[in-house]
Specification:
The protein is mostly helical. It has one domain (2-469): Orthogonal Bundle (Hydantoin permease), CATH 1.10.4160. The protein is built from 20 helices and no strands. It has helices at residues 2-6, 17-28, 31-43, 47-75, 79-90, 97-129, 138-149, 152-171, 173-201, 206-214, 223-235, 243-248, 257-285, 295-307, 311-345, 349-370, 391-418, 421-428, 435-458, 461-469.
């Protein structure tokens, strides 16, 4: 059965290992790398946080990514069908296919609100290019952002444009769509980042940013900061949502999964660090707060771009960079669902992409309305502040805080305990003595344990336990 499965190439294959690296890196590199990593680094003391983050990428990210790629290539199917096939082969419960369903569903839901946020970046490309931020005051920039997110019609327009961009790429298939897109977008993303870092190097505050990013200050790193690094290392690599698994199913036989997974993780981390090197000098040069939170991108940085020489040019470049990062991630979020529909319902890829794109677009309207008429507040377990954006926050918490970590933990368990060692060792193609044993140890014990700790933290277990113990 496995041999027959491996011969199925319904969707095509990547033309080379390098293309797969670009595609998977594009999936991993998203809005989180450009805006989230810099501000959570800023909020947790800089260099010490980066060191913990890098350790967590190695202990969680790389082993689970290797597992996801391996599962996809072993079955050559969409995540749902892959887990169904591999569970049957291993004599395991059919319920493992629900893990595939959870990942695909999570990706579908994430894209519905991710597209709305990406629409903000798209809108800001044109705002920056028009000089809207030039000499703007803090109140003026804040007002621009508030007016945008509270205007459902404008948000719907940008959300629609971005979803069309995503569907067009998906509909063209692996070689004609996904591959062509990442071959252009990912090098362009790196070039834009390098240009922005080059600008930052010519400011008087570049070394201040370097010291902040790379000088460890463990006194500024709390236990909560360690857990934040742990969680971000998992989320930043697009794990648990089926994207890496379906991309792995297009990977040619004989390509080293270990080498490619490490390469992707390193590329993703380099993008995050380059983003920090580009952003922090601008932040410090303008006397801004490095831990400002999500507003750093859409309120703080536009203010800085509006005051600095060449701000129109560099601000526009920055938001194009943000758009490209969002686009490459969005493509990978829709692909698992499209692949499943094509495999199971004998539907043309263009039709499948169009229908699923339309459904995602419709769900995105819920997020759009969450910023205006449908907004409401709610508390999430032990969170310090109530969430105030209604269903947008509900969907974000459901996917990023619950579905993805559970999915990643179960993938580690499935790969480490359910699949046979002989098959995993053969599929991974690890040639270095002891490397497979190390991967097996990490995927069986370390990775799922650390993800479980993240889950406990997200659900406020540690906080409630501390209160119970009077700590």
């Amino acid at each position: 059965m496995v041999a027959k499965t491996k011969k199925k190439y319904i969707h095509g294959q990547w033309s080379s290992r390098w293309t797969f690296v670009l595609a998977a890196t594009g999936s991993a590199v998203g809005l989180g790398n450009i805006w989230k990593f810099p501000y959570i680094t800023g909020a947790n003391g800089g260099g010490a946080f980066v060191l913990v983050y890098l350790f967590c990428v190695a202990a969680i990210g790389v082993p689970i990514m290797m597992a996801e790629v391996m599962l996809g290539r072993a079955a050559r199917q969409s995540p749902i069908n892959a887990l169904t096939t591999l569970a049957k082969q291993a004599g395991a419960s059919k319920l493992w296919r629900l893990l595939g369903w959870m990942g695909v569903t999570a990706g579908f839901i994430i894209l519905s609100y991710y597209s709305v946020i990406a629409g903000w970046a798209l809108a800001y490309v044109f705002r920056s290019a028009s000089g809207a931020f030039t000499l703007a005051t803090a109140d003026g920039v804040r007002s621009m952002f508030t007016d945008l997110v509270s205007d459902p019609e404008r948000l719907l327009a940008w959300h629609t444009i971005f979803m069309v961009m995503t569907v067009v790429v998906i509909a063209r298939g692996v070689r004609g769509g996904l591959e062509q897109a990442v071959r252009v977008l990912m090098p362009a993303l790196f070039v834009l980042l390098v240009i922005l870092v080059g600008y930052a190097m010519n400011t008087d505050y570049f070394m201040v940013g370097v010291r902040f990013l790379f000088t460890p200050d463990f006194s500024a790193l709390s236990a909560a900061g360690v857990l934040t690094a742990l969680g971000h290392a998992f989320f930043t690599l697009s794990l648990g949502m089926g994207a890496i698994m379906v991309y792995g199913s297009y990977l040619p036989k004989g390509t080293s999964i270990a080498v490619t997974s490490i390469t992707i993780s390193m590329a993703d981390t380099v993008v995050a660090l380059l983003a920090g090197l580009a952003i922090f000098p601008i932040v410090f040069a303008n006397g801004l707060e490095p831990g400002a939170g999500p507003s750093l991108i859409f309120q703080t940085l536009p203010l800085a771009f509006g005051q600095m020489p060449g701000g129109v040019f560099f601000g526009t470049l920055f938001f194009i960079l943000l758009l490209f990062a969002a686009w490459t991630s969005a493509i990978s979020l829709l692909e698992p669902a499209v692949a499943w529909v094509v495999e199971n319902h004998n539907v043309d890829r263009v039709i499948a992409a169009s229908i699923l794109g339309l459904l995602t677009w419709l769900l995105g309207i819920v997020t759009i309305m969450s910023f205006s008429d449908w907004a409401f507040s709610f508390d999430f377990f032990g969170s310090d502040e109530p969430k105030t954006s209604g269903m947008f926050d509900v969907l974000d918490i459901l996917t990023a805080n619950i579905m993805l970590p559970i999915g990643g933990m179960l993938i580690a368990i499935f790969a480490g305990w359910i699949m046979s060692n002989k098959l995993t060792e053969q599929e991974l193609g690890v040639r270095t003595p002891g490397a497979y044993v190390l991967w097996l140890f990490l995927i069986r014990y370390i990775s799922p344990t650390l993800v479980f700790i993240v889950l406990l933290h997200l659900f406020g277990v540690f906080q409630h336990l501390g209160q119970f113990l009077g700590l």
